[in-house]
Amino acid sequence: MTRLLFEDVERWAIDRPDAIAVHDEYESVTYQELSIRSHQIAALLLNHGVQAGDRIAICVPKGWHAIAAMLASAKVGAPYVPLDPDSPAARIQLILEACQPAVVIAHPSAVNTVSAAVTANPDALVGTLASAQDTTWPVDPAFTEADLPDSDGIAPLPMPNIDSDDLAHVLFTSGSTGIPKGVQITHQNVISYIDWVVEHFGYTSDDQLSGHSPLHFDLSTMDIFATFAAGATLHPVPAGLNINPVNLAEWIRERNLTQWFSVPTALNHLLRLGSLAESEFPSLRRLLWCGEVLPTPTLIGLMDALPGVEFTNLYGPTEATIASSWYQVPEVPADPAASIPIGVPCAGENLLVLRKDGQPTDDEEIGDLYIEGVGLSPGYWQDEDKTAAVFRTDLLPGRRVYYTGDLAWRRSDGQVVFAGRADSQIKSRGHRIELGEIEAALETLDAVGSSAIVAIEVDHLTGSAICAAFTADAPMKPALLAKELAELVPRYMLPHRWLQLDELPTNVNGKVDRPALRTSFLAMEKS
User: Fold this and answer.
1) What does the pLDDT read at residue 131?
2) CA–CA separation, 390 and 167 (whole Å)
3) I want to staple 441 with a disulfide (CB 3.0 to 4.6 A). Which of 41, 282, 332, 488 is the partner?
4) Across the chain, what does the average pLDDT equal?
């Protein structure tokens, strides 16, 4: 049986008890201390009647306390559901109504979340791992940190009555209908991937690893559990540093990080506003990104500034467990307009580029991208219809594949190249246009820092209007940018609306918030 998610911490708590497991914004804890605290929380959960298969909702700010609660959930066989403390209460309520947790562990600062928990699931126990003396706390907590049993008096916990194919957690992502979708992830899904990461990227117990992503975003799963598999130290990145790249650069230096992993938006900010100098991060060995396309001009700037660092692009949706392919950039790209491949499959995974009839495409022919292998989720939480729609068993005989909704093509050397979203292709004035192509071209212009191209519906005759949001170090005239862009793309692909911003808006996962941009452009259209 493949091990369960908590077992790596237990191993290091015995072998290297004084090694630092997590160094968060406020304190550092050893593997032994993390093991003891998760043990205490697990005992508390068992005392409150939690059984294997129950859900544990965790709404605690990123740090070692939240991670201890995740480990405790695994120790009792209960999949955890990480919640964003900053999410609107209405969204939290939808998630809680869907997953029906037996216990909600919340921080006192998450008052709206606790209120939503009580409304959505009145039978759930609501507790806190910190003092609940805040007068705005809406319920008498079922337990507080003071109720944790004495670590000296806890009997050994029984192994949970689950195996590696059971759920480790349920991650809720945005749904097209406005209702979050719960992606089910098993222990086997996670362990298969992190074991590949540790071996492939050479993680060791000496590594100092970033924890940039929020805990409800699947990239954090790699941050946490690959760190623990290697016996290394995790450094959760304080949320406030995301809006201050200069301080973030200083923090990376102070923490002597050896590996950095994030979405590209953070790297755009770091390069544009962080004033990176050569050898800025002397300890850094590898920089990895995932979640969206890193503009090639940004990659060139980063590689020029950090010549001793290896750069790796990871690709994969939540439904396939963090990442399914990788590409190590061999050298600084010569062409800022060149696409960076998403690469070749990780161990146990497969990328399929298929035509609509399920037949494989020829080299350099764009097709639909499918994934198969050990990372595939069992499906969406209590939603068989949505699961069947994208986890296909009817396309290829005897095989289960996930439809990503992405377009891709395969080079003659086997490297796969992302070609945009299938749903980002629009029709404007009779022309079929891939928005990602415009975005890639715009970001090659010297004046542009970062950009996002979206489309809005104007009228049934015109079709979609192309809209460009961008950042620049100085005020820019759209007419001048359009003139330069016209040298790179056909005139029918030029944006109709322009919006210069100090920063592109981002969602809770740190990705560019394209729905928010569409809303802004629609408001401009109506004004």
Assistant:
1) 60
2) 20
3) 488
4) 90
Q: Which residues pair with 211 in a beta bridge?
A: 236
Residue 226 phi, psi (nearest 5): -70, -35
pLDDT of amino acid 460? 41
Sign of the C-alpha dihedral computed for residues 366, 367, 368 and 372 taken in this order: negative
Q: What is the pLDDT of residues 308-349, one digit of tens each?
A: 999 999 999 999 999 999 999 999 999 998 999 999 999 999
**In this predicted structure, what is the pLDDT of residue 24?**
94
Relative to beta strand 103-106, strand 56-59 is parallel
Q: Are 211 and 62 in contact (CB under 8 A)?
A: yes
Backbone angles phi, psi at 4, to 5 degrees: -95, 165
- Integer Cα distance of 157 and 135 in angstroms: 35
DSSP code string of 318-340:
GGGSS-SEEEE--S--S-TTPPP
Distances (CA, A) of 182 to 102, 115, 177, 179, 308: 16, 21, 13, 10, 40
Instruction: Identify any residues that bridge with 506 across adjacent strands, giving them in sequence order.
Output: 512
Q: How many CB atoms lie within 10 A of CB 405?
A: 13
Sketch out the chain's domains with CATH numbers: 7-186 (3.40.50.980), 237-419 (3.40.50.12780), 429-526 (3.30.300.30)
Q: What is the pTM of this model?
A: 0.85
The Cβ of residue 221 has, within 10 Å, a number of other Cβ atoms equal to: 25
